[in-house]
Structure formats: C-alpha cells, structure tokens
Request: fold
Amino acid sequence: MEKRKNPEKDLRNKSGLFFQIGLFSALLLVVSAFEYKQKEVVNPLNLTGLTFVEEIIPPITKIKPPPPPPKPVLHTPVEADPTEPEIKVPDVIIDTETIPDPPEAFIELEKEPVNELPFDIVESMPEPEGGFEAFYKFVNKKLRYPGPARRMGIEGTVYVSFVVNEKGEMTNIKIAKGIGVGCDEEVLRIFNKPPKWKPGKQRGVPVKVNKVMPIKFILN
Reply:
C-alpha cells in the first residue's frame, strides 16, 4: 500500500514564502554591498634610508660702478724766475725782392666765352612777326611745286628745323624729315631769305630756341 505524505508537513505549500524570504535576503545583500566602504590605510613613510640634498643658493654680489675719471689737473702758470737772464729773439726780416714769382699753374686764365646751346622749350616761345598766318602766306607765295614731284603725283609734308637766335633770325636751317623728288631742295630755297621772328625769352632774356615747322605739298 502506497504511503502518503502529511499535508501539514509538505514544504511545497510554503514555497511562496521561501521565495519572498530569499528575494529579500538578496536585495539586502546587494544594498549592503553598495553601502560598504573600505577604510584607506595610509602607511607612514619610512625616511630612514633617504638622503636629502641641500640646495645651495649662491650669494648675490653687487657690482660696484667704476670710479669716476680723475679730474683734470689745471696747471698754474709758472712765473718767470727774475734771476734767469732774458733771451731776446732777433726780428725776422723778409726780403720781398727775393720771393719767386708764382708758377704759371696758379695764374688765373681768362675763360673763353662759351656759346649757349639753344633751348627746346622756354617761357616765351618765339613767333613769326605778324603771326603764323603771315609766315605761311610767305611760304605759299615763295613755294613752287617741283616739276618731277608734280608729274609723279608726289604729295607729303617736309619738316624744316632751324634756330631762332636772340635777334629773331632764322639760322641753322635744315631738313628734319623730307619726301625727296626736289621738294626738300625747294623748301631750303625759299628760306634763303627767311622772314623775321620775335625771339624767345627765358626769364625775360632773349635766348636761342630750336623750332620745327611743317611745309605741306598738295596737288590741286
């Protein structure tokens, strides 16, 4: 016949209680573990075997400034001893007749007059007497168209250069740029007897001035 257990002594009936007791114990253990603090034990230092090196601070020496330079010694004038004899220096006589003449290198030579170079631009530029209109009337009246240039149909501009001196005269007349075929020679021919000019002035003084004038050759 099968034996049956006593229901009062059966522990399975109290399994819920045992589970709650175990859970509470586990929570208590976890909280205790977080709250537990271990005291830090500090061991005293053993200084018996250590050696200390004392830092030696060098002494601070003050550098004294150099002494001031010695003051100059003023020499007092020495009075002449009245017992010493007085020495007389003979007078020096200069004979002017024996002085040689200065060398020729030291004789100032007269400077030769230097011709001033003509200016290109001055304060008051030279102008033909009667104005430039009168100048070109003179050119048109004297100018003749060269036959070879007319037959070849040559046209162009000849530039004549000259210098107007202090007297208003045209000098050093040259062809600065020509076209040839007799035109350059014709321009020089009409200026064999050039017209008068008003001279240019620099600071109110008449001076030489360079000029360049164009002469046009146009076939009608």
Notes: The longest helix spans residues 15-35. The chain has four helices and seven strands. The helical segments are 15-35, 132-142, 147-151, 183-190. The radius of gyration is 65 Å.
